[in-house]
Structures are given as C-alpha cells and as structure tokens.
Write a structure and sequence with these properties.
The protein has 13 helices and 20 strands. It binds ligand BES, manganese (II) ion and zinc ion.
Amino acid sequence: MKLGFSRAKLEEVETDVLVLPMFEDEDQTSSSFAALKDGSENLVAEVLQSREFRGKLGEFYLIPRPPKVKAKRLLLCGAGKQRVYDANTLRQFMSTTFAKLRQINFGKVAVFDRGGVDADAAACAAVEGLIMALYDPEEYKTSNRGTPRISEMTFVSSAKVKRDRILQKMERARILAECTNFARHLINQPGNIINPLVLAQKARDLAKEGGLKIDVLDEKQMRQKGMNALLSVAKGSSVPPRLIVMRYRPLAGMKRKHRQRGPLALVGKGVTFDTGGISLKPAQSMEEMKADKAGACAVLGAMKAIAKLKPNREIFAVIPSVENMPSGTAQRPGDVVKSFSGKTIEITNTDAEGRLILADALAYARRLGAAEIVDIATLTGACVVALGHVCAGLFSSNGDLRDRLLESGRRAGEKLWQLPLDDEYKKEIQSEIADMKNSGGRPGGACYAAKFLHEFVGDTAWAHLDIAGVDLFKDETSPLKGASGFGVRTLVEFCFL
Ligand code: BES
Ligand code: MN
Ligand code: ZN
C-alpha cells in the first residue's frame, strides 16, 4: 500500500473512496461541505436528515458517484461527538468500517482531515486503523475468502505540517500496524499449529530478518540453570519447552552518551495452550486458551518493529514458552519446586502456570543485566473480572516507569489501568512449607499474581501488564475478530520514551 499526503480541497481529491468523518453533532450547514452542494441541494444535510446515518461512532454510509466532487465514492464515517473526537476515535472507525467493507476492492482510499486533532497523529491513526482492518482472521476458511486490496492511502489535510515529516510518521505507523497484525496472526494460530518449538522457530526467522541476535534455550540448558518453575509446567506436555532470548542493540553510530536508559527487557508469557494442567479448566471456552501466548506474540511483534524503527536503547526479549497439559508426567498440585532465583514455590494450582514460567523468565532477565523490565501476560481471569475487555491491568514497582508506560498506552490507543501491588497482597500467597505458593484466593486474584511476580524482580524497575481481558476482540458488534495484538504498539512506544 502506497502512503500519500495531499493538501487538495474536498472536491479536488481524486480517489476511489474518500473517507469523510462526520460528527453526530455536526453543523449540517457547515461551510466545510459547501463543495458538496449541488444547486440548492446539500448532499450532507440530506443524508443526515434521512436519519439513515447520524454520525454515531461505528456508522457509515457509502455514496457512489457523488456530484461535484472528483472522488468516485464518498464514505461518510460516524466519528461520534465532536467534543471528544481524537486520533483514537479515528483509528477505531477506520478499522471497524474497513473491516466491514473488507470484501470490496476499493483501490485508492483518501481520508479527509476534519481538524481538531494533531494532523500527524490523525494521519498515523488512519494508517493504523486501515491496515489493522485489512488483516484477515479467517485463514482456515476454505471458501468465501475475500482478498482485500487497497493500493494507496492518502491523508488529505490543510493543516500546517511538513510533508516529509508526516509521510515519515505514516511509514512508522505502517510498521506498527503491520507488526500488530503479525502478532495477531501468531496468536490466532491454534495449539496444534504453534507449540513452543514452532514459536521458537518463528522467533529465529524474525531475528534473521531483522538482524537481531537470538539464543533459544532448550530443556537441557534450562535444567542446568535451574529453571525448575518453568520446567515443572512443561513436564505435562510431550512437546518440550523453550526460552527465547532476543537482543537488539542500537547502531554503533548512535552515541552512548545520548542513551539515557539502561537495557530494557520485554518479557512475554508464551503458553501455546493452557488446559490448566491437572487443575483442569472447564470445557467452556477452553479453545480461547490458544491465545495464552498473546504476551509472547506481543513481544515478538514489538521486536519486529524495534528492528525496523531502531530506538536508541538496548532491548532484550525474554519469552518463556510451554504447553500446559495434564498427563502422567504433569506436575501435581502440592508439588514444590526451586526456581531459577533460588526461591521455592509450592504449586497449589497447576492452572496458575503463567506466573511460574514468568518467575524464571523475570529472574533471568535480571541476570542478563536488565535495568528495566516490562512483562506482558494473559495472566488472570480475575483481571478480566476487574477491568472487562477495555483496559489492561498495569502493575508497577516504579512510578517513573509506570508513567512512561501510561503515556505509551495513550499514544498507542491501548488503555492501561493501574492496579495495586501493596505488601498486604503477599499474605495470601504465603505457603506453609515453601517460600510462597502460586495461587491465592479468588478475590483480588490479579493482584496476588502480580505480587507473586514482584518476588522475582528484586529491586529492578519493573512493570507487569495483565492482558487477559484485551488479547481478543470481544465486542460482538465489532467486525474485528480474534486476536487484537494488544501491547505491540504500547511496548514499541515505550522504547522511545
Ligand atoms: N491463562 C489463564 C488466565 C486467563 C483467563 C487468560 C481467561 C485469558 C482469559 C491463566 O493461566 C489462569 O488460568 N489463571 C488462573 C489463576 C488461578 C488458578 C489462580 C485464573 O485466572 O483462573
Ligand atoms: Mn492457567
Ligand atoms: Zn495461562
């Protein structure tokens, strides 16, 4: 898809489909639509008066061969209330509208800037929304598959922006969106297609393509290092576990003195399927547990973007990957293991496996010399209960790091909400026979899980993102289905702050 920028007037834009954001509290006689007037008839006012389209967020209205304009079609897109309009709204309606129209080969698309939002941010949001809409989750359908093709997207704006600069930002947005789609595609793959070995191979391919260093630890190497919390989870599966470690280093030309921050570790939970193990999950919706690798895939997507965007900071990815299965060789409730950090864990629930593999991965990230650690994981059902499918839970031991993550989330259009890490939560995970146990009571479950992870990061600045509620699109009314790729864009933005 070619990306373009134009300062053309509404009536002058030559394109196959011209996206015109419309507000529900639109001034129907607004002079911005003067160009759409044909004699005494005002096309926009007419459509609004028909009540077939009211400008509400998510609505759209396609007008073929509109008079007086060069565009072949006008696509009115509901942008909601003008007062709360922002780049995230634009990204949202671009993705939902074009996902609904995915089967149509529009060719060239232009998006008309209605102002009110920073033009750079709006252009980027338009690119991201469009590219995310074009991802097709129906990979395994053998019929009726549309092959959407949009050859060009042009952002049309009269804002005072430098052409080169906005185009550069749009290219960056394209990378972010494509890497989000890369993560979505991996997450959507079922457990019979992606297991820890396959995930490791995908990481190797990615590293090769992006010029990143990679090291994949196998079972034997993990045993030598004493990563018994991770290995204990893996025991139940006939597929062996892997620990993927990738490294990005800034170009030698990038001056060290400009590098304010030490190495960052991105740690992602890579459970390729979570049955719960011996503490087996109920059948209801268990298929969704193929997405229990969403954290790992978000980190892979972020690394893919990082390799292209080249932030001036050293970055590691640490991805523990296992399959959590019940079997004759599986770990039992009550088992006690000694983790990589040396701390002992009583496993009271084999379905709380994410924190076990992350315990070893976090401790290993410290060992690798991380100055800051951000982990991302589909960790608890309790986080879904707390925040629903809107916000991811954010836990952090460090105010500065937390603030940078919150800002990254805002830039990315991915909502984060802070949850507590108070020491009182530790009581619940105290074990009678080991240093701690891996599950607490039901109420506050997201906090116990986070507190458990906290035990393994020592005094290193750390934040944990619980994405259990946001890894999949859950809005039945939205045409976006399957994995959301949540976290890719936030993590990449974070690398630049
Ligand atoms: N992968 C699940 C968490 C999850 C639940 C993700 C729903 C997405 C949607 C995790 O491994 C898990 O099973 N957590 C348990 C922990 C409990 C046993 C302490 C949970 O949340 O029920
Ligand atoms: Mn589980
Ligand atoms: Zn899990």
